[in-house]
Write a structure and sequence with these properties.
alpha/beta; four-stranded mixed beta sheet; seven-stranded mixed beta sheet; Aspartate Aminotransferase, domain 2; 18% strand
């Protein structure tokens, strides 16, 4: 008999009732050190007081009005994102998949508006993840997610991540844009070579394509800057963000340059809930914290210390761990034994981490994590590694 909640998740046997900072508390009294952050969402930790205050105040004033009206908090959040990014304009929606969907629409509309309606295809990268809608599944091209949902939506080509030669060779007269995660998350916590984004920008400019970034997971401070691509200094034309933008309140955004958004006029896109007063109150509260002086310097410093400790862990247990990868506090450990088994043992000891592609442990701590919590996490990791059954 099917459950009342559609059984689409392989859920852990943990029922959570509250959270505080880097910790989650279960209904049975267990406490967990949470290095998943709700899959990269609660980057300011659970129940951050400033976010609570902002959303609570908004809840007492106005929850929803629709986008038939001007929404002052939405205008403020959009301007702050524009002021701190490459973008000239922002559309708000409810999730990362929706943000990527709009980015794809913007790319096609741009080509149509500039005299090239035949350019509709998007080149994506193998190992990517862009969401669970038909278009975003097709954009990623992962067979394990597409199985049973065919036929696959047309309009997408795929090349190896971090391979500029393959990307250039894949461009055809029908290509509209390049879509890439500046750091792959779900696909294995993979950061590209230093010149990769620069090379993509050159290809896009040479062939008249738009460069689209998916920063749903790697953006919003995760790597120690507001957006991951800012480390390379290579701006996109369009970018999708979500997850940590609301610290748990559903909100996503599609950012675009004025050039790229040339065709986005009234009637070309919309959202019932996107950017409603509650969502943008959360988003503005998140930016209040993240844009404060010294915040990103603190994230980068903690990330450097944490990564060094993880590299020591991997070196100490070569029968379990191969290497450390990622960027900032989007960290991964490639495993020798099944990563899922390690995740399960860590959870039994009170530490929550995730898996990712390529047999990787994915570690997404809140950006406000302190050295005490890092030390506690490493103690648990070392304990599990020491007690691991001999091969």
């Amino acid at each position: 008999m099917i459950s009342a909640v559609m059984p689409t998740y392989g859920r852990w046997d943990v029922a959570v009732e509250r959270g505080e900072g880097a910790y989650l508390y279960a209904t049975d009294g267990r406490r967990f050190l949470d290095l998943t952050s709700g899959i990269g969402v609660t980057s300011l930790g659970h129940c951050h007081p400033h976010v609570i205050e902002a959303v609570t105040a908004q809840a007492g004033a106005l929850w929803h009005s629709s986008n038939l009206f001007r929404i002052p908090g939405q205008e403020r959040l959009a301007q702050r994102l524009v002021d701190n990014s490459f973008a000239d304009t922002v559309f708000f929606n409810n999730s990362g998949a929706e943000a990527v969907e709009l980015a794809l629409k913007v790319a096609r509309k741009y080509q149509s508006e500039t005299g090239h309606p035949e350019r509709y295809r998007i080149i994506g990268c193998q190992g990517s993840f862009h969401g669970r809608s038909f278009a975003t599944l097709a954009a990623a091209g992962a067979e394990n997610y597409l199985k049973g949902f065919g036929p696959v939506m047309d309009g997408f080509d795929h090349v190896a991540f971090n391979n500029l030669n393959e990307m250039r060779a894949a461009v055809t007269p029908e290509t509209a844009a390049i879509l890439v995660e500046p750091v792959q998350g779900e696909g294995g916590v993979r950061a590209p070579s230093a010149d990769y984004l620069k090379g993509l920008r050159a290809i896009a400019d040479e062939f008249g394509l738009l460069l689209v970034y998916d920063e749903v997971q790697c953006g919003m401070g995760r790597t120690g800057k507001l957006f991951a691509h800012q480390w390379s200094g290579v701006a996109p034309d369009v970018m999708a963000v979500a997850k940590a933008l609301g610290n748990g309140f559903p909100i996503g955004a599609c950012l675009a340059s004025e050039k790229a958004a040339v065709g986005m006029v009234p009637g070309t896109h919309g959202s019932t809930f996107g950017g409603n007063p509650m969502a943008v109150a959360a988003g503005n509260a998140v930016l209040d914290v993240m844009l404060a002086p010294g915040f990103f310097d603190g994230v980068a410093a903690v990330a450097t210390r944490f990564r060094a400790k993880l590299e020591e862990l991997a070196a100490a247990y070569p029968k379990l761990f191969d290497s450390v990868r990622g960027a900032g506090l989007l960290l991964g450990i490639k495993c020798v034994v099944p990563a899922g088994d390690i995740v399960a043992k860590l959870r039994q000891e009170g530490l929550l981490v995730l898996t990712a592609g390529d047999n990787v442990l994915r570690i997404l701590p809140p950006l406000v994590i302190g050295d005490r919590e890092i030390a506690a996490a490493l103690d648990i990791m070392h304990k599990v590694a020491r007690e691991w059954p001999a091969a």
